[in-house]
Amino acid sequence: MSPKIERKHPVNALILGLLVSLGLWIAPQDSQAEYADVVINNYADAAGMRPAVFPHWFHRIRFRCKVCHADLGFQFKAGGNKITMAKIIDGQFCGACHNGEIAWSVENCAMCHSGIPGTPTHFHGSTLQRLIAPAYKPLDTKETAGVKYDENNQKK
Amino acid sequence: MNITARFTALALPALLAGSALLANAPALAAGAASAPAVSDANIFNRNLKKDAEVNPPPWEDGIHDPENEATHALQPPKEAYAGLPTTTFGNHIDWVKALDDGLLRPRWDRINSNEEPFVMDLDIVRPVKASMPDVVFPHRQHTEWLFCSNCHPAIFVPQKGANQISMSAILLGQKCGVCHGKVSFPITTASCKKCHSKAKPEGWSPPLSDATLKNPWK
């Protein structure tokens, strides 16, 4: 489908070349977010909010791992803590500091709920995420067994 | 004099642009007209993932929504990292060295900024069956950041010989991989020697496999 270029119109060729190089330059790349940023989307999307993004780097500059992972009870698992706003305003999890005394308070919704809608819960840049071959296969359940898909992702 | 100068100023860029046009245009035209000789299936480094940019600001990082106004109020990592020692993996900061050098002062207690960590200086040597250097686990660097209960006994049983650790388990996020590969330094070619740091004893050679020892054709 590429337009046919003739040598009579070198300016067209130059413009095409410029466009192609521009296209390569701004082509979509893998997201480059900070290593160890955690996207938490257990409930946010379903409640009509952007998913929350937790920046590990920002917090480790100010607190040692022990404060959150031993004292406050955060499990070492993305999405494994089942954090809700009700728990936060009761002073659990993020609410132990984000209470307007140690750190800014919960009325700043969009500071945490700043992820791109639809981003699943994950640990950004983890080794597991960077493995080239998938680390696990989806289970072959009754619903999926023997189902074939055509090129348009429709069930045959 | 004046006219010559003006002519040069005008003509030189025009000439340069013209020659660039002539040089580029036929090549581009030929490239667009003929089919590519090498298939895209045969490109170099097909599976090599490289970071285009490290530590980009939140609004360009691909997981924060740039349409969310508060995203632009978040601190860009590079601003916070100025002056910290660097590495070539993870988020490219040597956090342990930064702490040792006193460039960071993270709290050990949520409220009291004067509380000191409970540091235990004990190295554990883990012999490795294969040819990689043996592993030295330093408690000191870990207890600067973490508390005993973070690892013991749920992740590591505090008993010699009680913990089976393999690189595949670590890559899949178990044992050391609970943190290493997620938040602390990840497993890359450049970081192997951070753990595999104790040279094998003099005269050590890798054990032969059964397939070699019982080879009927040898």
Structural account:
The complex is a heterodimer of chains A (156) and B (218). Chain A contains 6 helices and 3 strands; from the N terminus they run H-E-E-H-H-H-H-E-H. In chain A, strands 2-1-3 form a 3-stranded antiparallel β-sheet, with no helix packed on it. By secondary structure, chain A is mostly helical. Chain A has a domain at 38-130: Alpha-Beta Complex (Cytochrome C3), CATH 3.90.10. Chain B is mainly alpha-helical. Chain B is built from 8 helices and 3 strands; from the N terminus they run H-H-H-E-E-H-H-H-H-E-H. Chain B has helices at 2-33, 77-81, 95-100, 139-145, 148-151, 167-171, 192-195, 210-213; strands at 123-126, 134-138, 196-198. In chain B, a hairpin with a 7-residue loop joins strand 1 and strand 2. The longest helix of chain B is centred in the N-terminal third of the chain and has 32 residues, at 2-33. Chains A and B meet through helix 1, helix 2, helix 3 and helix 6 of A and helix 1 of B.
Mean pLDDT rating of chain A: 80
What is the gyration radius of chain A calculated from CA atoms? 23 Å
Q: What's the CATH C level of one domain in chain B?
A: Alpha Beta
Oligomer: heterodimer
Helix content of chain A: 25-40%
How many individual β-strands of chain B? 3
Largest sheet of chain B: 3 strands, antiparallel
- The CATH superfamily of one domain in chain A is Cytochrome C3
Give the N-terminus to C-terminus distance of chain B in angstroms: 90 Å
Unreliable spans of chain B are 1-31
- CATH superfamily membership of one domain in chain B, which one? Cytochrome C3
Q: How many strands of chain A?
A: 3
Order of helices and strands of chain A: HEEHHHHEH
Distance from N terminus to C terminus of chain A (CA atoms, Å) equals 30 Å
- Largest beta sheet of chain B: what is the strand line-up? 1-2-3
Based on the coordinates given, report the CATH architecture of one domain in chain B: Alpha-Beta Complex
CATH topology of one domain in chain A: Cytochrome C3
Classify the secondary structure makeup of chain B into a structural class: mainly alpha
